[in-house]
Amino acid sequence: MSDLANVYQLFRSKFEDNDFQYYYPPSYIRSLTECDDKIIFAFRKVQNHILSSEMDAVRPKQSPNSNGSASLDLTGSPLRDVSFEQFEEMNLSKEYQESSVQNLWTVDEETYAPLSTEKARSLLQAFISLECRIGRGSIWVLCCGTDSEQKVLLQLSVNAASNNQRHFTRGVVRFSGVQPSNSITLGQLIDIHRQRAGEGMKFSPKIQIQQWCKLHAQITLRLSWNTMGEGSTFAIERNARVRLSQEFPVNNGAFSRSSPAEYFWQQLQRLAMMRERIMDIRANRESGYARNDVCGEAEMDLEYIKQKVNNILSSFLEVEPVTYNSSTIIDMVSLVQKRKLTDVMERLYDALTLCSSYEDLKTAIDYIFHLSTHSNIVNVPTNGTRFAQLILAMIQDRLAIPLLTGSEPYELLLECGFSKLMNDYRTIFTEAGIYELEFEKLFQPQVTNTRKSRYATGNGPQLDTHHGAPSKRSATQLFQSAAGDDRVREKSILLSNFDEDEVKLRLNRLAQVHLLLEHLLLLESAVNVPSIYGRVCELYLGRAPYSYGEVYNRRTDLLEFELDEFMLLRKADHVLPCARRVTMSSANMLQKLETVFYQNVKPILPGRFYPQFECKELDSKHEFWCYEYDRIESL
Fold first, then answer.
1. CA–CA separation, 385 vs 393, rounded Å?
2. Best CA proximity match to 209, nearest among 181, 178, 241
3. Number of H helices, E strands in the chain
4. Among candidate residues 514, 527, 590, the one with its CA nearest the CA of residue 557
5. Which of 113, 210, 362, 627 is at a distance of 20 to 30 A from 80, taking alpha carbons?
6. Weakest mean pLDDT among 226-240, 445-459, 489-503, 530-544
7. Residue partners of 623: CB distance under 8 A and separation at least 6
8. What is the DSSP letter of 545?
9. Which of 189, 180, 223, 182 is nearest to 207 (CA)?
C-alpha cells in the first residue's frame, strides 16, 4: 500500500530540476515487480513531436456531437457515425502499426527520458539525508544506462513508522544484454545471484519461475511454478499454475466486419438505433421522425410489408423440429443465423424492420392490429412481450384497436428485438454446450440509480406535436369489453413503458454477451479446449459490463483468468517462451537480497533513449533481452 503524497510534495519542492509523477508504475516497472501500487517516478519529460504527429495522423476525429468521456452513454448510431467511418477508411502509417504491435511500452512512456546514473543516485541520497514526514511506498528513478553496469532504474522503498525512524530498501535494475534463449540456464542465474550475495548470505533453495508463451497473436499463457535445488531447469512442471490472457481486438467497433458473428452485432446496433429514435421523439427532436435507418439497405415498400404480415398471421406454417448437431461454436453461430424463424413475434419483427420510415412502421403496426380484430388469425403469438399481449387481446375481442402516438411504435418494436436477440444468444450458448445464459439475472441492476432522465419512463400519453394529439385509447384504458360492460374490463396493457436505464442496461449486457462470444470464437480457433469455456463464461459475465457506446472507444478487450487445465500445459510444451521471470533470494541475520531475472524477446524500455543497447544480429533465431533486478532489504 503506497502512501507517498507528502514525500511527493517534498520531492517537487526540493528537486525542481527534475520531473516527478505520483501515479501507477510504468509498464516496465510492473513487468519487473508485478506490483500496481502507486509510486513516485523521477524522469526527464521530453516532447516527442515526431510521435505526436504520427498519432494525430491516425487518431480518428470525433464527430461534433460526440463526447470522449468513457463514463457517458454513447449509444448513438455507430453505423453512420462520422468518426467511426473515418476510422474504418483510414490507412494507418507503417510506423504506427509497428509501434502498436511490437512495443511493450505505452505512448506516454515515450516521453519519459532518463537521468544520468550519477544524478539519479545523488537524488536518492539527498532524499535520505532530508527530514521528511511519514510515507510508505517506492521511489523509482529512470537512468540512462551509460555506466559500466548499465543501470536503467534505481529504487528506494520507504517504510516509515515515525518521523525519527525510517526504514529504506534499495533496488537496482541492470540491462545485461541480448542473449540466445537456449544459452541461458538456471544454474548460470544462480551463480550470478550468489556472487552478489557473497559468502555471508545463505542461499534459499526455493526458486520461483514464471514463463509466458504465445499460443496466438492475442493469446498468452503464463505458467508459474516453484522449483528446488540448483540442478533444476526451465522445463515446465506438471503442477504449474496456468493463467490465460486474451486480448480480443475490438478495434473501436470495427471487429464485427470480419467476425463470423457479425449478424448478431448488427442486430444489437439496430436495437441501439431504435433506442436513439425513442429518446429523440421523447425529447421532441425532429430526428426521431426522420427516414428510418434501422433496416439499412433491406427496406421495402409498405404494400410488400403488409402482404408479408398478412401471410405471417393468416397462413399455416409447417413447423419441423429443429435439431442442432454442430460440435463447434462457429458452426452453431452460422446455424442460428440461418435458422428458419417459427415464432410469430420474431417473424413480425423481421418484417417490421423492413419499414423505411416512422410513418410506414406506425401504419404497419396499425394494420397488424386491424388484422387481429377483423380477420381469422391462424398463428397466435405466444411470447410475453407487450406487443404479443396486445395482439392476443384483440384476437380474443378483449381490446379495442389502440392508436399509436409518439415513440410507441419503436418501443413495441424494441421489446420484440430484445426478445429475439436474447433467444439467438441463448440458443448458441445452450446448443453448443457452453453455458446457460440467465438474462433475468444479467439484467438486474448492480447499482441503484435514483436519478433518471426526464424522458426515462412513460406512464401516460406523450405529447406528439408532429403526429396528432394523444388518443384517449392510446396509452390508457386499452381494454374495453365488446359489449361495453365496464364490469368485465381487464387490467390495462400500457403501450408506452419505456425505461431509459433498463434499456441501457440491456444494451450493455447484450454487448458483453457478444464480446464473450467473440472471445470464445477466438479461443476455439486458437486453443480449442472446450472444457474451459464454462469457466470463461462464468468469470467474464461476473464482471461489470462496459457501456455499449464504450465498445467504440476501445482497441482491445482483455479476458484473463487462472485455471487448472492439463491440455493447455501440453500446448505450451511445444511453444518457445516469449518472456520469463525468475526470482531467487539469499539472506543472513541482517539483510536479505532478492534477485529477479527478467527476460523478454522484445525490449521493455523505449529504444530511442537507449541507443547503446541496440544489438547486432545473432545467429540464434530466438533471443532474450535480459534485465536483472536486485533488491536488498535490511532486516
1. 12
2. 241
3. 18, 14
4. 514
5. 362
6. 445-459
7. 178, 179, 180, 181, 601, 615
8. P
9. 189
Strand 556-563 to 241-249 pairing: antiparallel
The dihedrals phi and psi of 441, each to the nearest 5 degrees, come to -75, -40
Determine how β-strand 166-180 pairs with β-strand 19-23: unpaired
Cα gap 458→215, rounded to integer Å: 51
Strands 202-203 and 206-216: unpaired
Q: How far apart are CA 394 and CA 74, in angstroms?
A: 38
Q: Are 577 and 211 in contact (CB under 8 A)?
A: yes
| Amino acid letter, 482 | A
**Helices 344-352 & 358-374, crossing angle to 10 degrees?**
150
* Phi, psi dihedral angles at 149 (to 5 degrees): -95, 0
Query: Is the CA virtual torsion 236, 240, 243, 244 positive or negative?
Result: positive
Strand runs labelled E in 47-197: 112-113, 136-142, 151-160, 166-180
Q: If you search the block for the grid coordinates 455507430, which residue do you land on?
A: 78
- In order of 241, 301, 303, 306, 499, the CA distances from 467 in angstroms are 64, 21, 21, 21, 22
Question: What are the residues facing 560 on neighbouring strands?
Answer: 245
User: Which has more pLDDT, 383 or 457?
Assistant: 383
Q: Which of 260, 236, 246, 242 is nearest to 215 (CA)?
A: 246
Mean per-residue pLDDT over the chain, rounded: 80
Please answer whether residues 44 and 21 qualify as being in contact, where contact means their C-beta atoms are separated by less than 8 angstroms.
no
555: nearest Cα among 104, 251, 235: 251
Condensed to tens digits (0 to 9), the pLDDT of residues 131-149 reads 666 677 899 999 999 999 9
Position 376 pLDDT exceeds 70? yes
CA distance 237 to 606: 34
Residue 593 pairs with which residues in a beta bridge?
Answer: 586, 632
| Cell numbers 412481450: residue | 385
pLDDT tier for residue 220 given thresholds of 50, 70 and 90? very high
- Cα–Cα dist 173/605, whole Å: 12
Confidence band for 400, pLDDT divided at 50, 70 and 90: confident
Element holding 411 (H helix, E strand): helix 408-431
Report the alpha-carbon distance of residue 393 to residue 340 in Å, rounded: 27
> Which pLDDT score, from 0 to 100, does residue 109 have?
93
For 475, which DSSP code? S
Per DSSP, the three-state class of 23 is: strand
Q: Are β-strands 136-142 and 39-45 bridged in parallel, bridged antiparallel, or unpaired? A: parallel
| pLDDT value for 499 | 86
